[in-house]
Write a structure and sequence with these properties.
2 copies of one chain form a homodimer. Chain A has 1 helix and 3 strands. Chain A is α+β, with helices and mostly antiparallel strands. In chain A, about 25% of the residues are buried. At the A-B interface, β1 and α1 of A face β3 and α1 of B.
């Protein structure tokens, strides 16, 4: 059940361990909120449009986000 | 026109200058791609679900993203 697109639970069950940076079309950062205690990161893949959860603690994930923000993607 | 949700042009025309960190429900990072030369950051606001473009260079934006990633949001 979502109202205004607000998820009423965590969306990620497991996270992708393999570095898939070059396949990422976009990344969604969802801060912890009343319905989900953890920050969630959901990447959309280029070719398939598939959504994949990433681990906010994983070094390669932090590197991918840093790279996107510095416009060197 | 979008295929598989891939935007065929830049989505942001202007960016929000006021620090609106506490109103942000989630943030979308879109790396530069063949259709848009710049990294784009699109925030969805909590109450209204409204989408707002943020400036990747703005210090307050970098702080908001850092805070989300460190799970201190």
């Amino acid at each position: 059940l979502t109202s205004l697109g607000v998820e009423l639970h965590c969306r990620c069950i497991m996270t992708e361990s393999k570095p898939i940076g070059r396949h990422i079309q976009k990344v969604e950062l969802i801060p912890a909120n009343s319905h989900c205690e953890e920050t969630e990161i959901i990447a959309t893949l280029k070719k398939t449009g598939q959504e994949v959860c990433l681990d906010p603690e994983a070094p390669w994930v932090k590197k991918v986000i840093k790279k996107i923000l510095s416009n060197r993607s």
